[in-house]
Amino acid sequence: MKKGFLFFMMMMLLLTGCGTTTTSQPSPSEATPAKTDSSPPSAKEEAPAPAKTFKIGITQIVEHPALDASRNGFLQALKDAGFEEGKNLQVDVQIAQGDMNNNMTIAQKFVGDKVDLILAIATPSAQAAVKATSDIPVIFSMISDPIGAKLVDNLEKPGKNVTGSSSNHPDAARKIVESIKEFVPDAKKVGIIYNSGEQNSVVSVNESKEIMSKLGLEPVEAAITTTAEVTTAVESLVNRADVILLPQDNTVISAFETIVKTANDNKMPIFAPDSAAVQRGGFSTYSFDYFDLGYTTGKLAVEVLEGKQPGDLPVVYPEELKLLINPKAAELQGVTLTDEMKNKAELVQ
Predict the structure, then answer these.
(1) Same fold for the domain at 54-168+289-312 and the one at 172-287+321-347?
(2) pLDDT tens for the 349 residues of the chain, in order
(3) What is the reported pTM?
């Protein structure tokens, strides 16, 4: 019995020594408190910088459907590229109302406002902007002759802080003058109203006169300097000219309805400079979509806002021309439309 009892106790001691041990966990009051990071977020991770809001100043010599369409196309291109008013874009549109002093004041205002980019629509506005700054990017639009206007020295590589789009399609003047011979074959004398102080008008008129000389047409000029002189100018062409040819001229177009009335009263077809003028009562033109040209100009601005230098971007042109005819104006101005004319033209109502 004793031996059995002693054997039993020894086995119990052995089993107790071989048992697994566990580490006791501290009580909640003994637990080590969690570390907290009291440093500001910027010390751990750089906070994203707020998106830059770009400021664009738009200077436009006068209100005119073609110029307005170009401006709208420009803004649409910016929006499509992610530059949108009210989000990351501020736009200040200023119209000079044909006043050259206002024109220069607007350009100087934009320089003082330190805008990121200036869009200058039409030659006088572009000249004022280029004169006002050599630092802020200037994108021009609706310019007949960028080199003649002394905006750039080279169309492929403008240099400095300037580039833009030209509204002078290489074939436009030739096609318009040729259409005079085609649509009014009896015409001999072509009345031309233009502002002799607008560089783009002078260039356009000289180009048209050169083409006329090859086609046996005689130019009859009526030069003006202000819109107030348009009435006298167009009336002076009655009985001296068979048709009226208008260049891209901001002063003349501002008084376009005056020209239309005289042309209608005297059966003188108006060969207009752009699609907007045909819509307003001109008989015919070869033109392009001014919204599209503005959109192309806007794409230049996007490249500049994204970091490219304006002077490295070539000046752009309209891509295609189309014949436009206003049938109502044709009737009022004494032109009989043939089926061939109707088929080859886009009819504007």
Answers:
(1) yes
(2) 444 444 444 444 443 444 433 333 444 334 444 433 434 444 344 444 457 899 999 999 999 888 999 999 999 999 999 999 999 999 999 999 999 999 999 999 999 999 999 999 999 999 999 999 999 999 999 998 899 899 999 999 999 999 999 988 889 999 999 999 999 999 999 999 999 998 889 989 999 999 999 999 999 999 999 999 999 999 999 999 999 999 989 899 999 999 999 999 999 999 999 888 999 999 999 998 899 999 999 999 999 999 999 999 999 988 789 999 999 999 999 999 999 999 999 999 8
(3) 0.68
Residues 6+ apart with CB under 8 A from 183: 269, 283, 284, 335, 341
39/186 Cα distance (integer angstroms): 89
Q: Does the 54-168+289-312 domain belong in CATH 1.20.1050.10?
A: no
Q: Could you tell me the residue ranges of all domains in the chain?
A: 54-168+289-312, 172-287+321-347
Rounded CA separation 67/120 (Å) = 10
Distant-in-sequence, close-in-space partners of 14: CB < 8 Å, separation ≥ 6? none
CATH class given for the domain over 172-287+321-347:
alpha beta
Alpha helices by DSSP H, listed for the chain, are 2-18, 41-44, 65-80, 100-113, 123-132, 172-183, 199-215, 230-237, 250-254, 256-265, 275-279, 290-305, 327-332, 339-344
